[in-house]
Amino acid sequence: MPKHLEYEDIIVSDRGIFEMQHGRIGAKVFRPDIDSVHLAYASTANRPLLEAAIGIPLFACGVYGLISWLVGRMAVSDILFILLVVGVVGVGMLYDVFRRRYVLVVMSRGVIHKLAFSRYALLEDIDCFRQQVQAQYEIIIESDLSRQ
In what order do the strands lie in the sheet with 4-7? Predict the structure, then answer.
């Protein structure tokens, strides 16, 4: 029997559920802490409203800096560089808010963790993975998603 099950950046073992990011463990929820697990097709952001509320002004600062530079109101300077970098950070935050993927929503001690499958994950394969996890580790992964 394998020591763990893995599918598209999600690893389940005796120790818990883990999300891989760039070959390293990015997020982890240990087995004793898990209250419930639910499969959803949702935003990968843990706090999408907060990230959107911060990302929009940062993006607006970047757009202001870019337009000011293109119109000629602002010379190339440290302020312009900071505005453009802030704008890129805002775009990254908004991308995370609007990007939708299959995620495992794990409740642990009142905290919600979203562990995202990679963009290549297919619902049929995720269902097979769910069944293996339930059989081998007795972690019940609820799902309302239907095969289309």
Answer: 4-7, 10-13, 16-21, 24-30
